[in-house]
Each structure stands twice: as structure tokens, then as C-alpha cells.
Amino acid sequence: MALPLPPHWDPDRIEEIRRVPYEARAAEATAWAEAHDIGPAREDERRVGLLLVDCQNTFCTPGFELFVAGAPGDSRRLCEFVYRNLGRLTEIVATLDTHRAYQIFHAAFLIGRDGRHPPPYTVVSVADVEQSVWRAADPPLQKHLERYVRALAEGGKYELIVWPYHAMLGGVGHALVSAVEEAFFFHALARGAQTRFEVKGDDFLTEHYSALGPEVGGEPNLQLVEHLRSFDAVVVAGQAKSHCVAWTIDDLLRLAPDLAPRLYLLEDCTSPVVVPGAVDFTPQADAAFARSVSLPLFTAMNDLDIDYVIAAVRRLLA
Known about the structure:
This protein is 33% helix and 14% strand. By secondary structure, the chain is α/β, with parallel strands linked by helices.
């Protein structure tokens, strides 16, 4: 049964960047668990994990670098989902997109014939690199750039895109949305379950959309795959539906196809990248999820009692 929303929850503050009052929330979480007979996560009969992809200010808060227009509403519904299903969510796994100034998709990495760096949202094709429309600003990295754009083309996902500087390590944009962080902290204290954080994207020579591995080169995060296998159900949400959420699910299905019947998408807690006048990745997001037809996709998932998911898992395991 869905729980009530705790007194501190204020949906009107979803876009605020603020300090979470940890001591107060810790005491309230303990009292909330006692009042609503919420036991420790280690005693859960069916383990339900929430995989949250990149719910950071850089994507979710207006005015930040790669703001996804639907993200504030997604974050509000996500928080309510966590609070209402506090006693059924065993663990939260949160990924953090993590970058520095010099990354292959940031302007500083590339330079044009006129000696200038490309503007945000410039698409860099194989032909552009071969014809020196764009080249590596650091000459020793030119060969890598050439190999990289060819590998992207062969992979059939996206061409190299120059993104605005975003998710900068140590910056405010790198942090979780304050209300989301507060909900996760409240969950951790109420359930006695440490939130697990997964850093991705710190290899400056590749993009890293998926939480499970880079676009080119590197090794998949098999430790995370095995951890997700430990749940009877994995609920996925976050930003953006067209990129990091899409390719995380894609990689999960490729690396662990046995997880498909246990995978659930909070479809009203994720949105595609749309920058008016620049890019609109809605069609790519729709195409990515069309490939995942085996997934039980739910709209308005926050209004759906998670008992439905538990019941589905029981049927699967029967």
C-alpha cells in the first residue's frame, strides 16, 4: 500500500538548490519508519532496486547547462514515488555523469580551420575530421579523434556532438537535484540501506552515455550488472530518455538479457533532450525504447502501487 507523503516534502521547491538538513531528516526518517511500520531493507522478501540515471542539476534544474525541459516534473514524480513506496524500495543506485574541462565532446578538445573552438551542439562527422573541418586541439590526440568518430559511425548510435560544458566534477551542476538527494537520504535512513553511487564519464577520450560502459573502448561495468542482478525487480528512471537512460537499458539488455522480465521503466520520470532551435532527440528516444518491447513500460508509474511490480515478480519466480 502506498504511504503518505512526509511533512517536509514540498513539490514547489523541486527547482531549488538548497542544503538538505541532514540531522533533522535523519530523526524524521527514523520516526517515520516507526510510525508506518517500515522494516529494514535487509528483511525485504522481494528486493526492488531503483536505478536512477543522472538526476543532476546540470540536466534537471532550469538555467543549467544541459537542462532537459521535462526534468522538473520528472523529479517531482520521482520523489513522490520514492516517498510513497519507501517500504518497498530495497536500495537506490544513483549514477553521476562526471566531466572535466577537456573531454572529447567539449569545445576545448576541438579546433577549426580558423583556430576557433566549435559552438555547442556542433555535429562532428567522420568527413569533418577527415577533411580537417574539425581537428584535435592537442595534435597528439588527432589519430585518436579519427579512430573515435569512425568507431561511432560503425556503432550506429550518434555522431560526435559538442555538448556544452556540463556535469563538471566539483561544481554545483554535478550534484543531485536537492529534493532528490533529500528523498534518497530519507530512504537510506528509514530503510537502513546505503544509497549506492556510480560515477561515469570521467574518461576524457570517450563519451559515456550508458551507466554500464563508454561509447568507444573501455570495459563494461560488470560489477554494477551483477549488483542489479541481485534484485527481483529493477525500476529505472532519470535523464535523459534519449541518451543515458536509453543506452543504459540497451546495455543492460545486451549484457544481462535475463534481467529483461525484471526491468521496469518509470516512463513519466524521464524525458528526451530537446533544445529549441538546436536539437530534438525525441524520435531517437522513441526508437530506443521501441527496441525494448520486452520491457513492461508503465506511464504514471508514481500513481501505480509498487505492489503491482512485486506481484509481477512473484509470478515470474513462481
